[in-house]
Amino acid sequence: MPKKQIQRIAEKKQRQIKFTPQKWLVSSPPDSTLDVIGFPETCGLLNAREIEVANTSVDVLLEKLACGKWTAMDVTASFYKRAIVSHRLVNCLTEIFIDNALTRAAELDDCLKNTGKVVGPLHALQISLKDQLCIEGLETTNAPSVSCVSWIGQYAEKNAVLVDILMECGAVPFVRTNWPESFNNIFGRTTNPYNRSLAPGGSSGGEGVLVFLKGGPLGIGSDLGGYGSYSEGTISSILTPSQQLYSYSLRICGLYGLRPSSSRVPCGGVVTPLEGQDYILPVFGPMTSSIGGVKAFMKAITRAKPWLEVPLTVRKKWNEDEYNLIDHGSGKDLCFAIMWDNGVVVPHPPIRRSMQVTKAALEKAGYKVVDWKPIKHRWDIWSAGSAEEIMITTSVTGELIIATMELENSDAADSITAYQLWQLQKMRRDLRKEYLDHWEATASETGTGRPVDATICPAAPFVATPRGKNSIQAMSKYINYTAVWNVLDYPATIFPVTTVDPNLDAKKSPHYFYDGFNKGIYEMYDPETFKNAPVCLQLVGRTLKDEAVVKMTEIVNAALAAAK
Amino acid sequence: MPKKQIQRIAEKKQRQIKFTPQKWLVSSPPDSTLDVIGFPETCGLLNAREIEVANTSVDVLLEKLACGKWTAMDVTASFYKRAIVSHRLVNCLTEIFIDNALTRAAELDDCLKNTGKVVGPLHALQISLKDQLCIEGLETTNAPSVSCVSWIGQYAEKNAVLVDILMECGAVPFVRTNWPESFNNIFGRTTNPYNRSLAPGGSSGGEGVLVFLKGGPLGIGSDLGGYGSYSEGTISSILTPSQQLYSYSLRICGLYGLRPSSSRVPCGGVVTPLEGQDYILPVFGPMTSSIGGVKAFMKAITRAKPWLEVPLTVRKKWNEDEYNLIDHGSGKDLCFAIMWDNGVVVPHPPIRRSMQVTKAALEKAGYKVVDWKPIKHRWDIWSAGSAEEIMITTSVTGELIIATMELENSDAADSITAYQLWQLQKMRRDLRKEYLDHWEATASETGTGRPVDATICPAAPFVATPRGKNSIQAMSKYINYTAVWNVLDYPATIFPVTTVDPNLDAKKSPHYFYDGFNKGIYEMYDPETFKNAPVCLQLVGRTLKDEAVVKMTEIVNAALAAAK
């Protein structure tokens, strides 16, 4: 790298350190300590009240802030402290702007005191943001290329639309987080707090680990092709394949998340790869420790009429009738489908068990559960176009293709034509129609007169990913438990079900495999390695049924709690 | 053309004649009779009752059919007769299937008699369809290429989704109509009943003249780039430039039409050009003699939940609250904007007068009217990509580029790349944002606290088009009063205001021009040539506000009626 660039990176890092209060810099455990999850609460920096704050779910937090029991100043300072501690552990932050956040918090406290009214539905809630969402006066240096040193020193002249709406809603944007693949030339590598020798996955990896470590109550990630319901993947991740993908922290940290329908949360004024491509639209969504937090976010954002700012956002407020499952028999006789495997990669034992646990809990609660028959998870649509698409996108941004990423088809280096793209788009349209008909056809099995109300499925075939190469072909198989919903634009939540228990989740033998790749994925499973790792599932609904998807996740949650 | 193809065309035409009842073939006026509008009612074939039926608006027709005062059989036979007469005059039909239609009508009559209930909200309504909407057992030979002889003999195995929904709603599909540009190698040229030496424009030209001649109560046209709110244009019309565009019959025939938001009316199972392109989505919409008919159609189709059949259709039923202008002060203090000209082509005197008449009527009725400031009608977005796009689309289908269409930029013959397409799509996205902000900014002028509720503007700069060349550059200027709303995906109605009156609509001198092209357009205006031609305007709302757009058109209509 040229000396001048190295110098600019050093200056940027110095600025980051300068904005970090020295009094909050506790001595961190040595690098050899891999599991640092417990550290924030034992390091001595946080008092009991601050620990209580961090362990409060978003809905309760909002209540306490709205009635003035807790002040915006206190809660903001509390989360900021913990965010700095978390950052020291896993290098998850990019922009630190504590003065702005505390000034904002003071204003919110004054407003509540003077008027007796909250500023909005997210009054005084701290929000962490993936480093794509521009904030006036701050740099956005971290996307989408692996070498974006040239962006250092470019200060945004206005907020992203979502940031403006969050401000209107009374929220306190307070940090921005590292991506993509949680590694880049400026901020380096974000690690996984569960095992710091592992990467956190991505692309919203910085966001995932920050919220997981309770360094913030609610984070905003983005999703393009789908590592997680709150993690960007495929195209974008492939676009910036900064390192091997060691694990999917976003999947193993037990958060709740929502990949909304693409038109619900505004995507304007952000730094995003592949601008102008409409093939799969990027979406922003919440990541937090409760499904109530997901609901609070979605309700606030959609009621702020984001379509008056971003044309691609649909003219649809949060609909309480739909949340109350008006189109699903008011939730009385729900029938869920479970997809045990997708016909491409059989999931690891703990994931299968999590589905069994969920099925039993739902049946105990009086709901019907049927099997989902997987279709088209092998995705001609991706294999046909992915390599070509990657080559286009990398050549567009002129970035490097990292050596750990294998491009199997080097002939695909030429850009595809608009006509070829239309053929891919036609395949996507056909796939959407096929899935729609497939879903409708389940009406014959439910006994409710409706097709299945939601589908529950793995979020990935494993609770952590192999140390293998991040090759495109492999990736298209890894991510096909999530990316299919991106192609279809179906909203999907992520919710935690259980944790890995080596006694219950022993390696099963014999195990069946679809092919050698599937076998390889299975063979990297080791119960002891992933002991206690949270196991999450997805709940998937149909386009624009975000409200119903949130409500049904609450129902599944309640059933799981009751069955324990 | 090869002999074999000529033979196949002859056979197809013979089949059309075979399905035409000989008893309805009255002797038509000689070709030298140019204006044939009055012919159907004076030819002697139709009795007083049949003439009454044809002159009944859709909403009244539906009432009479629902209560059994008129039978489906009688009304279907009545319209079929008049459709055949119309066809003999202007060659507007492609598929004639009277037996199917009468069998269907008999079933509907039986059903009403036996159950006392209508089959659906469009019970027994005759619907004519542009020859894109497949019907089981019929050929669809007429699109999108100028030479689709090879499609002769291919009988559809299922209905288009819209046809299925129309059947569910109780409608009677009864004829299909000629396109594109209302000329093709099989069915030849459709002419303009106002002046048979002129073409009817297109691409839904067959549909337009059939409904204009009252050969059907409601027709379904399609729209891609926008000659009319119910007429396909730009890409598609350019795709199949079968002849010079002599006139826009769809504009001069005084019908009501709606170009809905692209996701409201399902576009599945149809024959459409450029499958897979999502740049501008094709839409289907109604054309009829009353705004009540437009409402009845939209209400019925969206309440049939088309999103359960076509994934791109939005999950949104007709919303009566929105129709009642809940977001527009319940319609009490509406503020309309008028776009007097678009900054590219100044409209002809009768169009300007129609806006003056509308403004006066609205003000008399107590509404506020402000001026709309035109932006970006010169369309870098089109000029940048259109020539390239045309070349792509023509090379895709392999069709001929007709000699009357000039491609100014022959270097553009190569296909553009996916990346270049994304740049166009980014421009479109930027344009959408710019228009959104522009519309929002009008809030400062309305005095209602809202931005303008709707914009009223010309549908074209003239009541009929010049005999000039159908060159791309010219077309991009002709159609920019409509195509901009396609790019933005704003719903727009067409409604008739007045007719050309040579006394009131004299050529104005001096007249101002933007450029030589504009001057050329003006110079072809001649009050006597277009004497008595209906003059229509558009009423435009914002994406997904179809309900409000229909209601506000009713309001404008009432104001115009009251002012007379």
From TrEMBL, chains A, B:
The keyword Hydrolase appears for this protein: yes
Q: Which domain of life is it from?
A: Eukaryota
> Which SUPFAM superfamilies does this chain map to?
Amidase signature (AS) enzymes
Q: Does the keyword ATP-binding apply?
A: no
Which residues are responsible for catalysis?
A: K130 (charge relay system), S203 (charge relay system), S237 (acyl-ester intermediate)
Enumerate the InterPro entries for this protein. Amidase_dom (IPR023631), AS_sf (IPR036928)
Single GO term (MF): hydrolase activity
A Pfam family (short name) is: Amidase
Q: Which UniProt keywords apply?
A: Hydrolase
Residue span(s) of domain Amidase: 74-549
Q: What is this protein called?
A: General amidase
What is the species of this protein? Rhizopogon vinicolor AM-OR11-026
Q: Tell me the lineage of the source organism.
A: Eukaryota, Fungi, Dikarya, Basidiomycota, Agaricomycotina
